Amino acid sequence: MSYDSWDDYAESQAEFDAEQEYLARIPTDLHEEAVRSYLGSCGDAVDARVKKLLSAATSLSASKFPGPSVVVSATILEVMIRYFCVRPIFEAAFLSDLIAREVTEKITRSHFFPERNLLAGILRPWKIELNEILLGSGKPLWNEFTSVVLENRNNFVHRGQDVSDEIAAIAIECATEFRAQIVMAMANRLGFTHDKSGCWSKVITDPKEHVFLGGKLINGETTYVTRSPFV
After folding, report:
1. Residue 144: its pLDDT value, please?
2. What is the C-alpha to C-alpha distance for residues 82 and 31, in angstroms, rounded to an integer?
3. What is the pLDDT of residue 215?
4. Where exactly are the structural domains of the chain?
5. Helices (H), the chain
6. How far apart, in whole angstroms, are the C-alpha atoms of residue 38 and residue 226?
7. Which long-range contacts (CB under 8 A, 24 or more apart) does 135-143 make?
8. Which single residue of 42, 130, 149, 220 has CA 20 to 30 Å from 166?
9. How far apart are CA 35 and CA 215, in angstroms?
10. How much is the pLDDT for 57?
11. Alpha carbon of 61 to those of 71, 162, 173: distances in Å?
12. Residue 205: predicted pLDDT
């Protein structure tokens, strides 16, 4: 084979490889765009509810009502799991709000709340290892939530069992760190700019970047029409 022929072959192979890589990324890119669109539209409503509940849990704990505080903290985590993780990823997978709503409702209304078991697998493709997220104590967040917070929440709700101030503090930390280390990790990967915009529905973008799916680019800002996933 001559040098010219080899160069032509190498160039053709490089083009073929680049094309295959591009085609292979289409499902991933479409999926991420769909998750981004959901969070851009619904993220503000979910975040507002999370922050309101977190304020309530903190106030209850400070007022020496650890039992109700733990109940609210557990609810915060369930809201974030459902509306920041399971719902957007399922909706993106099906690329249909109606189908995703039906599937997610069946999952989340189960008495056993099985999305807790699904979460590690759902987050892994996003480079988030759920069981490696730690609290300040060095203990795994997920284990503390499932084994300590939920157990104390259930014992308080169904048996009226006392809950300690320490458990209430752990529950609040679980909720706070879940948002910081998991929800915000997804947000950063998807290009949201909370540090600049302070919200999900407005993304400060480089004018050279493409417009996100479902967003409108004006003067370097991608904005989304907001909606509530709770209705």
Report:
1. 97
2. 18
3. 57
4. 3-192
5. 3-62, 66-80, 87-94, 97-108, 115-123, 141-144, 150-159, 165-178, 184-189, 194-197
6. 9
7. 135/170, 135/173, 135/174, 135/177, 136/173, 141/174, 141/177, 141/178, 141/181
8. 130
9. 12
10. 98
11. 11, 13, 12
12. 72
CA distances from 141 to 42, 133, 135, 149, 164 (A): 25, 6, 6, 10, 18
- What pLDDT sits at residue 105? 60
Determine the residue type at 25: R
CA angle at 36 for the pair 33 and 41, rounded to the nearest 5°: 130
User: Hey, how many other C-beta atoms are within 10 angstroms of the C-beta on 185?
Assistant: 15
pLDDT at 116: 60
What was the pLDDT predicted at 94? Answer: 62
Q: Give the pLDDT score at 19.
A: 47
Tokens of 155: 């014992």
Q: What is the amino acid identity at position 201?
A: S
**Helices 3-62 and 87-94 sit at what angle, rounded to 10 degrees?**
150
Q: Which amino acid is at 74?
A: A
Q: Which DSSP category does 131 fall into?
A: G
Residues 135 and 173 sit within 8 Å (Cβ to Cβ)? yes
Full-model pTM: 0.78
Calpha distance 218→10 (Å, rounded): 42
> Within 10 A of 205 (CB to CB), how many other CB atoms are there?
19
Nearest to 46 by CA among 206, 222, 184, 219: 184
Question: Which residue ranges in the chain fall short of pLDDT 50?
Answer: 18-20, 22-27, 111-112, 210
